[in-house]
Amino acid sequence: MSIETAIPTGTDLVDEINRLRKERKAVILAHYYQKPELQDIADFVGDSLELSKKAADTDAEVIAFCGVKFMADTAKILSPEKIVVLPDMEAGCSLEDSCPPDKFRAFREAHPDHIALTYINCSTEVKALSDVIVTSSSAETILQQIPRDQKIIFGPDRHLGGYLNRKFDRDMLLWPGICIVHEAFSESELLKLKAQNPDAPIAAHPECPPHILDHADHVGSTSSILQFAKTFPGDTLIVATEPHIIHQMEKAIPEKTFIGAPGADGNCNCNICPYMALNTMEKLYLALRDLEPRIEIEESLRLAAKSSLDRMLEMASGTIGKGDLGRV
Ligand code: 13P
Ligand code: SF4
User: Fold this and answer.
1) Which of 39, 93, 147, 211 has the largest count of CB atoms under 10 Å?
2) What is the reported pLDDT for 325?
3) pTM value?
């Protein structure tokens, strides 16, 4: 049945989602890259780390995850007793796709003296093959707790890994994955935009390639870019990440101007994440009504993936000893 025919004509989606949220004892979590109406109806909007923590801590019975599949998988890994629904099960991630578990396993086996520090944008199977997971907001804190002489594989995002290598003078071995969204920013168009707005700083996500990061005044996760937007002294900011985050900036600081960094065609529409964009209010309503599509993870796989995620949560808050990396 199509979405249109599944929803009775005249349904007020906001009213229905609010009714179902109470009836199901559900919490709605949304990433900053979701459509504004999904951000606005969510109980909590955040970056990957914040959403993982919310999923681990919530006492709701249902988590409706407005984000992509690896994020909803993470919620289920951390909260297995809860029903986790993802409005559109096709909401994947190019980084996850770039790192098939069998190839990642072979890569690990080829480098037995390396630990695997792995970006959360990967499958549950790859998490299970990893030692520590990081998000873009926890990666720097976690990397600094790993002894400098420890050899490290970093995957799947080679741009985030390369940024960390340069910033901390490390030589982590990089898996060759990229985010198609951050890869699409154009340096020449960015420089044209900067020439038109010479006083506007540039804030960029570390998934951007180095030729974009080289021009950035601030590099950080979505939540750190949002924080920079709230605190930088000027009135205009160029934002080199998925443009839906600008919704939160405009809500928080309506007097400032936020310009999405352009792609090769000179506008920022090519930087909308096509996976995040699959979630809609209609699909969220159906997910809460039907409690489908539901995330299910086989228990031994879940436990294996949970150990690298737990390590992230401990190391991100500094509660694990230096070098205490168990499975190395
Ligand atoms: P954050 O952890 O910064 O929210 O990033 C998630 C993501 O998918 C960026 O593309
Ligand atoms: Fe994946 Fe990039 Fe979309 Fe983030 S923006 S979910 S890394 S494809």
Assistant:
1) 93
2) 40
3) 0.94
